[in-house]
Design brief:
The protein has 256 residues and is an all-alpha fold. The protein is 68% helix and 2% strand. Strands 1-2 form a two-stranded antiparallel sheet. Strand 1 and strand 2 form a beta hairpin.
């Protein structure tokens, strides 16, 4: 693959991947970059986190969960295709709830099972600055990108099903005090694969040049990096070296 004089990638000699080849390329990204292998997750799944560290994870992860329907509303606003909007808005209902309990409410139930007050969690004043920065960067990514790139950034769901099943088993085994708060993960076992299939089919259909396929891959890489960054903040502040930022109000397990 050549390069132009301004260092932009020249895709004239690139090869258009088949749908199966594109799926394999995305799988390679997941195997290399998805946060299932982050040290914080490895500790969690091995039962090596303290109650306070698990509370910190639940609390900080809430901020990401609360932004998901906002992200999906931005994606909806980019499309003039009624059929696409009708399919994509399911994601907002899944998280906000409609006639039933949505994912955000289920996450708050997990927070309460962890011993956290729901108002304390929803105010989000206690989350780490690094987590807030990474989550907000995801909203910026979706807002400032094309519809194809925004949809492709959600393709981390291709790998989420396996992680969710592993996490449910680990939480039930090592953190039994969370047992009454696992409804969120149960719902995502079916929602994530359905959402991933739709997003992949859309990306594969509309990425009909090597350049557009490269944008799909790059969007997934950027999303993986932002998920990893959230865990980097948790690992650094609550595990090793355990250096909490000086901002007032940041969650401190010993004071919870």
């Amino acid at each position: 693959m050549g390069r132009t004089r301004d260092n932009a990638v020249d895709h004239t000699d690139a090869v258009l991947l088949s749908k199966a080849e594109l799926r394999q390329r995305l799988q390679q990204v997941g195997e290399a970059m998805y946060h299932y292998q982050h040290p914080f997750h490895l500790r969690m799944h091995a039962g090596q986190l303290t109650r306070g560290q698990m509370q910190a994870w639940v609390l900080n992860r809430y901020y990401y969960q609360s932004r998901i329907p906002i992200k999906d509303a931005v994606i909806l606003s980019k499309s003039e295709d009624v059929a696409f909007r009708r399919a994509w808005r399911k994601r907002i209902v899944d998280h906000d709830g409609d006639t039933g309990v949505g994912g955000i409410e289920k996450w708050l139930q997990l927070a309460e099972a962890a011993g956290l007050d729901r108002d304390y969690v929803t105010r989000t004043h206690a989350i780490l600055p690094g987590v807030r920065y990474a989550v907000d960067a995801y909203i910026d990514l979706v807002t400032n990108s094309t519809l194809l790139e925004a949809v492709s950034s959600s393709l981390t769901e291709l790998f989420a099903g396996q992680l969710i099943a592993l996490r449910m088993d680990a939480l039930a085994k090592h953190y039994p005090w969370l047992q009454n708060g696992l409804a969120y993960f149960q719902g995502r076992l079916t929602q994530a694969p359905e959402d991933a299939a739709f997003a992949f089919d859309y990306s594969a259909e509309h990425a009909d040049t090597p350049y557009l396929q490269s944008l799909v891959v790059r969007s997934l890489e950027r999303k993986c990096a932002l998920l990893w960054a959230q865990l980097d903040a948790l690992q650094y502040c609550y595990v090793e070296p355990g250096a909490l930022p000086p901002q007032p109000g940041v969650f401190r397990p010993e004071a919870s």
